[in-house]
Amino acid sequence: MLKRTHYAGCLRKEMAGEQVILSGWVQTIRNLGSVLFFDLRDREGIAQVVIQQDENPELFSKASELGREYVLSVRGTLRLRENPNTSIPTGSVEVLAEELEIFSPSEVPPIHVHEDDNAKEELRLKYRYLDLRKKSVMDRLRLRSRIYQSLRNSLYNEGFTEVETPILYKPTPEGARDYLVPSRVNPGKFYALPQSPQTLKQLLMIGGCDKYFQIAKCFRDEDLRADRQPEFTQLDLEMSFVEQEDILSLNERIISKLFKDVKNIDVSTPFDRISYTEAMQRYGTDKPDRRFALEIISLEEVFKDSGIGFLRSAVEAGESVKGIFLPGSDLYSRNQLKTLEKKVKTFGAAGLATLIFSSEVSGSLSRIIAPEEVETLRLLTGEEDGILFIISGKEKTVLTALGNLRTTVAKEKELYDPDSHDFVWIVDFPAFTYSEEDERFVSEHHPFTMPKREHLHLLDTDPASVLAECYDLVIDGYESASGSIRIHDSALQSKVFSLLGLTDEEIYERFGFFIEALKYGTPPHGGIAFGIDRLSMILTGTENIRDVIAFPKTLAATDLMSDSPTEAGKGQLEELHLRIVHKEEK
After folding, report:
1. What mean pLDDT do residues 16-32 have?
2. Could you give the count of Cα atoms lying within 13 Å of 326 in the half-sphere of its Cβ?
3. What is the pLDDT of residues 186-202, one digit of tens each?
4. 400-426: average pLDDT
5. CA 470, CA 486: separation in Å to the nearest integer?
6. Residue 4: other Cβ atoms inside 10 A
7. Lowest-confidence region among 32-36, 207-211, 380-384
8. Cross-strand partners of 177
9. Closest Cα partner for 283 from 403, 391, 394?
């Protein structure tokens, strides 16, 4: 067997004259009759191989049978090319072949292994093992590996212990639906795949682990989107005898080192900290991308006595009138503005009003707005030309709609440098929000989060006003990490469960083991979990989570390559004491 001595993508002109052995896949072949060229591809790049018929007719004949994606090794002498290809790093050299060993032929592949193959994503996922051969795809996975390396090194240096926790565990509802696993040896009972190792890492703190971390696989049976998968990976860590600031400082060190290790980017610390309320009021989201301005402007004072009826009525009803201002000229056509209006309506807004400032005032409100209101708005927006987008209604709806409009406009108008990064901690979240649908309070993060001590007295009388000791790290508009200080008192934990509508029986059934553990001396503790998939997206510059996962699922939670999920056989179901009940049988 010809054993590789060099990677194809690492050959350089300084190595001319050396004997090399390359191993990889045939990218392209060009047979010119008396001379044959083929490009050999491996994980590092491409190198051109040349075989001359007059010098080696037997080898030329063998190479003439090659096809795309054949796997082989080639031995030869590296030489300078007469006509260099300046578009690739190895374009100044080629390998004059002397020996060829074919390991595996290939049928005609259903997708081209080219960066610009334009294959549909469904086809790429069906033949993912071919798609992985593209350098850009494999480079993302290799960068992800470097992320793991940096994070592990940082945490080992900080005194953490890496501990694995079970995959088969008890269902402990954490907001999404569980993936259930039936137990064959315990008929009628089920494990759940963990949505996170939440209770387990807290039990490790009770057990004296002090500083724990793991790179954990987690599972949530929820509706998918471009940045979400049914199974995902997180860096999970927990620490004892800490307060919030200890955890934030630690993770700033970890993240700044990560960006330096992986992208050679210097990140300034400490990161900014803004409250949940401030984030919502300024950016319309608790995941703000602050690489561009477009902050939300409150307009209630402007329109409280306005002749524009729907805006004045909103203010009189105690609702919100807010806007964002996009400076510039000739920004959007009428049809494009209608498209933006349709978008904000998907977030509950009744409509999207506009004022366009230039030499004259135009837009949907231009004919009904008073001159003094125009003057006030001009002052508010810095007397620049541009578009003022206005939405009125319930505050939460208005803020959410404007927040989404803000990011849409910024992306369409390229208002930020995609290679820049912004880091901000969002703190002081509400501990609980009231669900109109469920007619009860629900946790804003999860039920193990410690309420702020100065708000504990409000648990019985005003839960909606209780703030939590929790924090999210937002990078470039993505929630990249989320954590909290945990409840370490069994009575308080039971009280929070009760506040969330659980009966004593339900608390015992679901969390009895955990409540009991808290009674045996629990240190104050807290932690955080980073989404590795989202971190990988940010560091590779992609907006699709499937680009950073080796074998991802579709938005329908299917694996097109293996055609899973699949139906279980009758025998398997009987062993598990299960029967499929179709809707019409109910």
Report:
1. 97
2. 23
3. 999 999 999 999 999 99
4. 97
5. 9
6. 16
7. 380-384
8. 221
9. 403
CB 415 within 8 A of CB 292: yes
pLDDT in tens, 555-575: 999 999 999 999 999 999 999
Would you say residue 264 has pLDDT above 90?
yes
pTM for the model stands at: 0.92
Residues 6+ apart with CB under 8 A from 62: 100, 102
Per the prediction, the chain carries an average pLDDT of 95
Q: Which residue has the tokens 């006509």?
A: 83
**Average pLDDT of span 375-389:** 93
CATH topology of domain 138-275+424-570: BirA Bifunctional Protein; domain 2 (3.30.930)
**Beta strands 161-162 and 211-219: pairing type?**
parallel
Among residues 213, 219, 225, which one has the least CA distance to residue 175? 219
DSSP symbol at 550: S
Residues 340 and 405: their CA atoms lie apart, in Å, by 7
Query: 174 pLDDT band (50/70/90 cuts)?
Result: low
Which amino acid would we find at residue 427?
A: V
Cα distance from N-terminal residue to C-terminal residue, the chain: 63
Query: Which tokens hold the place of 526?
Result: 């807290």
Fold classified for 8-104: OB fold (Dihydrolipoamide Acetyltransferase, E2P) (2.40.50)
Report the C-alpha gap between 474 and 423 in whole angstroms: 6
Angstrom distance (rounded) from CA 376 to CA 505: 60
What's the CA gap between 291 and 283, in Å, rounded? 12
CB distance 518 to 489 below 8 Å: yes
User: Around Cβ 486, how many Cβ atoms within 10 Å?
Assistant: 25
Residue-wise burial string across 27-65, b where 16 or more C-beta atoms lie within 10 A, e elsewhere: bebeeeeeebebbbbbebbbbbbbbebeebeebbebbee
What is the per-residue pLDDT for 527? Answer: 98
Rg (CA), the chain: 30
Q: Residue 68: beta bridge partners?
A: none
pLDDT at residue 586 greater than cutoff 60 = no
Instruction: Tell me the C-alpha to C-alpha distance, in Å, between residue 438 and each of 176, 435, 445.
Output: 15, 5, 17
Quote the tokens at residue 394: 């319930």
Distance in angstroms (rounded) separating the CA atoms of residues 462 and 452? 14
Phi, psi for 414 (deg, rounded to 5): 50, 55
CA–CA distance, 288 with 279 (Å, rounded to integer): 7
CATH number for the segment(s) 292-415:
3.30.1360.30
pLDDT at 175 > cutoff 70: no
Return the number of other C-beta atoms located less than 10 Å from residue 247's C-beta. 22
Backbone conformation region of residue 363, classed left if phi is above 0, alpha if psi is from -120 to 50, else beta: left
Which tokens belong to 364?
Answer: 């949907």
Domain boundary assignment for the chain: 8-104, 138-275+424-570, 292-415
* pLDDT value of position 257: 98
